[in-house]
TrEMBL record:
It comes from Lacticaseibacillus camelliae DSM 22697 = JCM 13995. It comes from the Bacteria. It holds the Pfam family DUF72. This is Uracil-xanthine permease. InterPro entries: DUF72, UPF0759_sf. Signal peptide: none annotated. The lineage of its organism: Bacteria, Bacillati, Bacillota, Bacilli, Lactobacillales.
Length: 275
């Protein structure tokens, strides 16, 4: 099964029934979402209940670990132990309802191959022994020929979900697309676009420009073939479109669904605009 969704809940004007798009809006077109607000702070359990109330019972969530938990702060896995437990408590209703697809650890570019960082990955699993955990490497060293097989083996041993990425390939060492599942239940694809200039750009607009990209039909067909290949080896593949610097993600995701002939039951009802 291939499930397609978006990130950045409030940033999809083509789906919005109000001033900004909501979870309810996204659920009318997609069966899954990636929540990135949790990267900045742990939500309360009340907030999680509110999220669940906005979507159908079959809708699922990929939830980002906080910056401290994913190592964007020094010694995060050790020092962020309280955040690990706080997020686990907050997500308990989502886990109980079967709607937590994974907790996503998007590791920073400086998280390279080392004994220390391998211990970090083991520590994450120790702290979350019973939660679905997905790992996205941003350091290409994990996929070098001399390390790639061991990297995938480590993810399998820890029962981590491998995040397969599509991103601009730059001379600075971008992560390649490695279409290998490491968990029989789930594989995640995150599609960041292929804007090479924007990916390398600094300045005030770097965040929007790095994901400013619209995939062509040919590119979507090729990525669809990858998703189908992964679906032969994982029970479910979640494809998240993150190419939303200029609001292209929703249209591309819907085009992707059509190209693959995907159909989802139990989507949210569309709100009719009477004016």
């Amino acid at each position: 099964m291939i499930s397609v969704g978006l990130t950045a809940v409030a940033d999809h004007p083509d789906l919005a029934s109000g001033r900004v798009s909501s979870l309810a809006d996204l659920s009318t077109a997609f069966p899954v979402v990636e929540l990135d607000t949790t990267y900045y702070h742990v939500p309360s359990e009340q907030v999680v209940h509110r999220w669940l109330s906005q979507v159908p019972a079959t809708f699922r969530f990929v939830v980002k670990a906080t910056a401290a938990m994913s190592g964007h702060k020094v010694d995060a896995p050790r020092d962020a132990g309280a955040e690990f437990m706080a997020l686990k408590r907050a997500l308990a209703p989502m886990q109980a309802s079967g709607q937590l697809a994974a907790v996503l650890f998007q590791l920073p570019p400086y998280f390279g191959v080392s004994p220390t960082n391998i211990r970090v990955l083991h520590r994450i699993r120790q702290l979350y022994p019973d939660l679905p955990v997905a790992v996205e490497f941003r350091n290409a060293g994990w996929y070098l020929p001399e390390y790639q097989a061991e990297t995938l083996l480590l993810l399998r041993e820890l029962n981590f979900v491998h995040v397969v990425v599509d991103e601009p390939q730059t001379p600075a060492g971008s992560v390649p697309l490695v279409a290998e599942p490491t968990n029989p239940v789930l594989t995640i694809m995150r599609l960041h676009g292929r804007n090479v200039a924007g990916w390398q750009r600094g300045g005030a607009q770097w965040r929007s420009e790095r994901t400013n990209y619209r995939y062509s039909q040919e590119e979507l067909q090729a990525l669809g073939a990858v998703a189908q290949q992964l679906a032969d080896r994982s029970k479910q593949v979640i494809v998240i479109f993150n190419n939303n610097g200029h609001h292209d993600a929703s249209a591309n995701a819907q085009q992707f669904i059509q190209l693959l002939g995907l159909h989802y039951q139990g989507l949210g009802p569309r709100q009719l605009d009477l004016f």
